[in-house]
Amino acid sequence: MRGTSRASLARVEERFEPVLAAAGAQASELGEQLFALVDALDSSGSLRRTLGDPSIDGEAKAGLVGRLLAAADPRVVAVVQDAVRQRWSADADLGDAIERLGFSAVLARSEHEGTLAQVEEELFRLNRALVGQREVRRTLFDPAIPGSARAGLVDAILAGRASDVTAIVARRAAAAPRGRRYVATLGHIADLIAERRQRQVATVTTATDLTAAQKDRLVGILREAYGREIQLNVILDPHVLGGLRIQVGAQVVDATVLSRLADARRRLAG
User: Fold this and answer.
1) CA separation for the pair 55, 112 (Å, rounded)
2) What per-residue confidence (pLDDT) applies to 208?
């Protein structure tokens, strides 16, 4: 999102957070309703353009939302009306914003239940299980396969070993990829969890596991660089070349960035 959209999203999120906190375990139901609206926006270009059009009066768009979502939870209606009153750099940004609000709502349930760290770990294990499973990853992203079938594949992978919140977001990521690869959506959700836990996620892919001391040193390096607490996720991949591949948000440090990688190696070695 560009600056205008980011500012609009921040305003909507700030006002929605107290609503989610008050909703408690019901917050995930609000998220499911927001996902349904995202699906409607993605399937209707005219609706998406109308609600995202900055030249149309915000109150008029809010009225349209009220009519479209007459059967929805009033809290969902209110946050969507708030969103359409904002200005968006592109009409697609509105759908992205509402999707983010939906994921945040589902995660707010986990936060209320005290299981957010568990969800984070379960999603990381799911991501790690998909390493080397190229055909499975392709299936989870394949638009020729119905979304319900992709979600069913996620159920088979999880096999009932994950929490309800993990299952909801993992199924949603498969059912509605919205142009993203499955693991990219899992990464996006992990970032949202990290924000809620006030941590920055760093994913390290390496051919051989790091020792506890190396992990501690790397966390210290990244904490100093980013000014935030770091959640370090390590993925073992024997095909990795160059020792370490470190991803923090959209930033990637790999063997092509020789000076930074060499410095990280030297500091890890002590």
Assistant:
1) 39
2) 80
Beta strands in the chain (DSSP E): 199-206, 229-236, 244-248, 251-253
Taking a C-beta distance cutoff of 8 angstroms, is the pair 197, 116 a contact?
A: yes
Number of other CB atoms surrounding residue 206 within 10 Å: 18
Question: H-type helices in 114-253, by residue range?
Answer: 116-129, 134-141, 147-158, 164-175, 182-196, 212-226
Per-residue pLDDT tens digits for 206-238: 878 888 888 888 888 888 877 777 878 787 777
Alpha-carbon distance of 140 to 131, in angstroms, equals: 13
Please classify residue 30 by burial: count the beta carbons closer than 10 Å to its beta carbon, then call 0-12 exposed, 13-18 middle and 19+ buried.
buried
Separation CA 26–CA 172 (nearest Å):
18
| 204 beta partners | 234, 246
For 63-103, the pLDDT digits (tens) are 999 999 999 999 999 999 999 999 999 989 999 999 999 99
pTM (two decimals): 0.76
Is the domain covering 199-269 a CATH 3.40.30 domain? yes
Contact 204, 234 (CB under 8 A): yes
Provide the token pair at 265.
């190696």
CB 188 within 8 A of CB 180: yes
Q: Closest Cα to residue 202, out of 143, 244, 171?
A: 244
